[in-house]
Amino acid sequence: MNHPQQAVDVKSFIDGRSLSAKQVLIVVLCFFIVAADGIDVAMMGFIAPSIVHDWQLAKSTFGVVMSAAPLGLVLGALIAGPSSDRLGRKAVLVVSVLLFGIGSIVTALSQDVTQMMVLRFLTGIGLGAAMPNTTILVAEYVPQRRRSLLITTMFIGFGVGSALVGFAAGWLVPRYGWRSVVIFGGIVPLALVPFLIVALPESVRFMLVRNRPMEQIVATLQRVCHCTFAPGTRLFAPEPAVSHARPAAILFEQGYRVTTVSLWVTYFMGLLVIYLITGWLPMLIKDAGMSIEQAANITAMFQTGGIAGAILAGWAMDRLRPVPVIAAAYIGGALCVYAVGSAGAQSTSLSLWMFAAGFFMNGAQTGLNAFAPVCYPTVARATGVSWMLAFGRFGSIVGSASGGLLIGLGYNFGALVGMLAVPAVLAGLAITASLLSRNSARDQVDTTSTAEQT
């Protein structure tokens, strides 16, 4: 018996349904990946005072180690984008998590600065490939009406991981030394790998643009959405027309060019602020007379505030225009960062201001991660998001390296932290500039064709 062929628009189908258990599982698994990322990124700041003491290093010398992982992140993100657009989101994601888990474990065996620098660089390659693919996989599997909130909720994992390693470092370092913290940072991602292999699906929209067998695509969507399609069902996903076949070239086409530059500059400025604070604030607070445990706990408030900020940013972005929400959060972050510097390291209100600064800065940065995937078509989405992260990582390198340099030049807590208000303001201005693009890439990507594809 012949069945009539049914054509289903994948994006409209997902947007019109409530979340299935499998879709929730995708968000949860990606949450844990981002949490593992947050642990690895933040842990060096918490163990830096102990390493500097044990190895008798100048703070400026250790700045080179601090910048090694961000440099690896740049390379990892540059490679991951085109690889993911060619090979698939899942394959690149699993390999990257495995790589940075192994890298972290091996880093704990470092005997000098050179070894640690090389191993942190290699670990960074895995980190750089993981983050963009979690964002894209969630963005391509959740309804548009809840996309920003779910992606920012996923990115809460970064703040959770960063705060967790801060509290863990405060307990582990006095008892077992700094190497125990690095081992902890490697165990978490390695434990995730089997679950990712078994439970994560490949992106249906990726499989469509890569012309995978229709039976395979239909079966994947049925498993994810817990539904059943009629025999012969054909899935499709309308995409905006592009002038180039290469994903990298698409980023600079008319309609994407201004948005691409805006995203890059905004991410650069935001990470500069965040990495300098998380990387060097524990040492600055300790130098002001507090214990390592107190310094770690105060700095962890920055990430803790970011958890609340991320939720509110995602909620607001699903209801308002995303760009003004993100810009306002960066400006709020600038005001709070300036207040942290003005309060001083010994202030009783320091924890409160750190929480507020994290609320706005991490909320804005997480909102930017949620906004970026919808700025590009499926064929270039991984490259667009990954290269934004890659360029932004130069901001983390500048933040990580300049902290030690500025401390060496004699900048105290107030002067160093207070000046970070400037890049935070620039981030707000840069994302606002994306509104100047006449043909918003977001509008192009989110507009679905009503015409039946034959």
Automatic annotation (TrEMBL):
<feature type="transmembrane region" description="Helical">
    <location>
        <begin position="24"/>
        <end position="48"/>
    </location>
</feature>
<dbReference type="Pfam" id="PF07690">
    <property type="entry name" value="MFS_1"/>
</dbReference>
<keyword id="KW-1133">Transmembrane helix</keyword>
<feature type="transmembrane region" description="Helical">
    <location>
        <begin position="352"/>
        <end position="372"/>
    </location>
</feature>
<protein>
    <submittedName>
        <fullName>4-hydroxybenzoate transporter</fullName>
    </submittedName>
</protein>
<feature type="transmembrane region" description="Helical">
    <location>
        <begin position="178"/>
        <end position="200"/>
    </location>
</feature>
<dbReference type="GO" id="GO:0005886">
    <property type="term" value="C:plasma membrane"/>
</dbReference>
<feature type="transmembrane region" description="Helical">
    <location>
        <begin position="295"/>
        <end position="316"/>
    </location>
</feature>
<feature type="transmembrane region" description="Helical">
    <location>
        <begin position="323"/>
        <end position="340"/>
    </location>
</feature>
<dbReference type="InterPro" id="IPR020846">
    <property type="entry name" value="MFS_dom"/>
</dbReference>
<feature type="transmembrane region" description="Helical">
    <location>
        <begin position="413"/>
        <end position="436"/>
    </location>
</feature>
<feature type="transmembrane region" description="Helical">
    <location>
        <begin position="91"/>
        <end position="109"/>
    </location>
</feature>
<keyword id="KW-0812">Transmembrane</keyword>
<dbReference type="GO" id="GO:0046943">
    <property type="term" value="F:carboxylic acid transmembrane transporter activity"/>
</dbReference>
<feature type="transmembrane region" description="Helical">
    <location>
        <begin position="149"/>
        <end position="172"/>
    </location>
</feature>
<feature type="domain" description="Major facilitator superfamily (MFS) profile">
    <location>
        <begin position="26"/>
        <end position="442"/>
    </location>
</feature>
<feature type="transmembrane region" description="Helical">
    <location>
        <begin position="261"/>
        <end position="283"/>
    </location>
</feature>
<dbReference type="InterPro" id="IPR011701">
    <property type="entry name" value="MFS"/>
</dbReference>
<feature type="transmembrane region" description="Helical">
    <location>
        <begin position="384"/>
        <end position="407"/>
    </location>
</feature>
<feature type="transmembrane region" description="Helical">
    <location>
        <begin position="60"/>
        <end position="79"/>
    </location>
</feature>
<dbReference type="InterPro" id="IPR005829">
    <property type="entry name" value="Sugar_transporter_CS"/>
</dbReference>
<keyword id="KW-0472">Membrane</keyword>
<feature type="transmembrane region" description="Helical">
    <location>
        <begin position="121"/>
        <end position="142"/>
    </location>
</feature>
<dbReference type="InterPro" id="IPR036259">
    <property type="entry name" value="MFS_trans_sf"/>
</dbReference>
